[in-house]
Give the backbone structure.
Amino acid sequence: MSLLQTVLFADISRSSRLYEILGDEAAKAIIETCLTRLTEITNQHQGQVVKIIGDEIMAIFPDANDTVRAAFQMQESMTQYAATHRLQVGLRIGLNFGPVIYENDDIFGSTVNAAARMVAFAQSGQIITSQSTVKILTPQLQSQTRMLDKIPSPGKTNRMSVYQIIWERRELTTARTYLDSKTVPFTISLQLQYREQILQLSLDQSGFTIGRNVENDLMVSDDYTSRQHAQILVRKGKFILKDQSTNGTFILAPDDTHAFIQREEYILQNKGWIGLGEMRQPNHPEVIYFEILDVPMGG
């Protein structure tokens, strides 16, 4: 049987780290609590959990707008739960509207596959969807979306546009709709602040280097920083931090979640602090503050 539905995947990110830190029993109890919350929110918004796959739920909703509102509540609930219990966990959500095949209490089809691609693309704290789904949302919800990238479409030769739906109140003032990329009224820049230095990188710049050597674009002189510690690259309209150091690089977000990369890449988003070689709090003298800024086109 084929139905028009919105498919939502919600995946608890950093869950494997919980098992490492807390042990199997404690981590399992936390994951089960989170999955119960996600299920309850799904039911509150006229949705149905089709199945639970490890630390991820797959759900369907008749209405795309209800799906987005459920996704908002899921992110808010997880953020509050993590903050209250001082846990470094988050939630990645991907959703997509279209026809699904419903058989034996499971769902199949290209809509499901596309939604799975969305959640795989999402980072912790993000809600990702397709352009076709954005077009059927209310104007209010459309105003809270922005185009991120084009990714391969499952089973097809063409690429599909993926959009982020902004749910955090502090980000709503900078949210834009990108339904037509030709009408984008602004671009973005990356602002870095280290000690008394303030640097601003545009999307035209790439290969910005950070390290202990004097020839770097930003020189950070301390024992934890490698001579050529990291680069900031620009790729597909994103600022990417590439670690090439011995001790690795930490990225701290305002909600106290963090990421660690070593010989890896990390997409810089919103704002936060970079610690070269060790975890550094915002008041550390060697921390690098970063923020993605909107810049009017032609300004």
Remarks:
- The mean pLDDT is 87.
- Residues 24-44 form the longest helix (21 residues).
- The radius of gyration is 20 Å.
